[in-house]
Amino acid sequence: MHSSFDPERKKILVTGGAGFLGSHLCGRLLAQGHQILCLDNYFTGSKENIRSFLDHPRFEAIRHDIVHPIDLEVDRIYNLACPASPVHYQFDPVRTVQANVLGVTHMLELARRTKARILQASTSEVYGDPEVHPQPESYWGNVNPIGPRSCYDEGKRVAETLMMDYHRQYRIDIRIVRIFNTYGPAMAPNDGRVVSNFILQALQGNEITVYGDGSQTRSFCYVDDLIEGIIRMMEAPGLTGPVNLGNPEEFTVLELAEKVISLTGSRSKIVHKPLPQDDPTQRRPDITSARESLSWEPKIRLEEGLKKTIAYFEQYGLATKALPVRAARTKQNGNAASRLPTGALRRAG
Ligand code: NAD
Ligand code: UDP
């Protein structure tokens, strides 16, 4: 008789599983032999990202929005469901707050009933525009509570609060990771993030849109490194976090633009556009905690990761012929229709 019982195999829920990070995570966990429930409302994610798993016997896709409760039997919950790029999370800010308050509560209630361990994908945005540099987990941040980024920044902060309160009050087994800017294949080409924008602009010979003077900094982590860190955190005994996960190498946005131009061999020119409100001026993770508690640090340097990402977008560009670039994202420099998330575009007809 066929038996699928394997004591090592876990039933793992990945919310936001059809998104950029979620789809990589599903792939890695499937390869480890687990059973995957991939939950997504396809607001910013895409079936394309999980197409290669759909026929897998240990993979199941569920269309659901975490702002509504759901009951499932699971051992692990990776909660990634939330729009992540500024263009997307500002498209429906009330919904963004709800994903982080109602959605996270529903996932924690699920963890409480099933006794599952739950990991929350938090963000470097909890540090806001940081006055401490680089940012250690002990830094409480400098966040505007009423600005255009607040739905995400404050939403993610209250999500961390809920995680800690469920842990203290109900002894839920929790993990919090604070993810810094991550890039790689399967990023949505229309999400307005800097790496995808610059690569597509360079490949299409369009102007490279640097917001402000380009002196603001970010630290870019390649997706494979990040996924390794997330899984290590989930399986580390007795840790709650928060733990920063990101690449501590820091670049100005202008340096990134120049690197992309040189790696693509593009003739694109750099143009400057207005800096969006509350755009953080600097960001770099202090990853001492991840190094010590998870023996984790990124291995893939920016140039190598960019080459892989450029190869992905080259392939994507060929497959879809003319791929429109969502270059602009502020009211001053944006075209509203071109900034809609994929799900919204689909709904709009
Ligand atoms: P993404 O937009 O590609 O993925 C998010 C996924 O969640 C999408 O598939 C989307 O359809 C789904 N989703 C959104 N709201 C939902 C809801 N209410 N119910 C169900 N599904 C919903 O973004 P990503 O870059 O893959 O980010 C994944 C997670 O990691 C997010 O929580 C984000 O805040 C966090 N994060 C990402 C980065 C990064 O640089 N990529 C940095 C910090 C934090
Ligand atoms: N940015 C830019 N040009 C673009 C997109 C973004 O100069 O076409 C800048 C943006 O203003 C910010 C940085 O790049 O300073 C990173 O932006 P992103 O939206 O990728 O992520 P953030 O870290 O702001 O959430």
User: What small molecules are bound in this structure?
Assistant: nicotinamide-adenine-dinucleotide, uridine-5'-diphosphate
Provide the spatial order of strands within the biggest beta sheet: 3-2-1-4-5-6-11
Give the CATH class.
Alpha Beta
Would you tell me which CATH topology applies?
A: Rossmann fold
SSE succession: EHEHEEHHEHEEHEEEHEEHEHHH
CATH architecture assignment name: 3-Layer(aba) Sandwich
Bin the helical content: 25-40%
Rg value: 19 Å
Q: What is the percentage of strand-forming residues?
A: 15-25%
Mean pLDDT across the residues is 90
Number of alpha- plus pi-helical segments: 11
Number of domains: 1
EC number: 4.1.1.35
GO molecular function: NAD+ binding; UDP-glucuronate decarboxylase activity
Membrane topology: Single-pass type II membrane protein
Keywords: Cytoplasm, Decarboxylase, Golgi apparatus, Lyase, Membrane, NAD, Signal-anchor, Transmembrane, Transmembrane helix
Commentary on this structure:
Residues 13-309 form the NAD(P)-binding domain. It is an enzyme of class 4 (lyase). It holds the Pfam family GDP_Man_Dehyd. It comes from Candidatus Manganitrophus noduliformans. By secondary structure, the chain is α/β, with parallel strands linked by helices. The protein has a single domain (11-348), classed as Rossmann fold, CATH 3.40.50.720. Helix content is 37%, strand content 15%. The protein contains 11 helices and 13 strands. The chain has a 7-stranded parallel β-sheet, with helices on both faces. Helix 2 (47-50) links the parallel strand 2 and strand 3. Residues 324-349 have low confidence and may be disordered. It binds nicotinamide-adenine-dinucleotide (NAD) and uridine-5'-diphosphate. Residues 15-16, 18-22, 40-45, 65-67, 80-84, 88, 99, 103, 121, 123, 179, 181-182, 188 line the site of nicotinamide-adenine-dinucleotide.
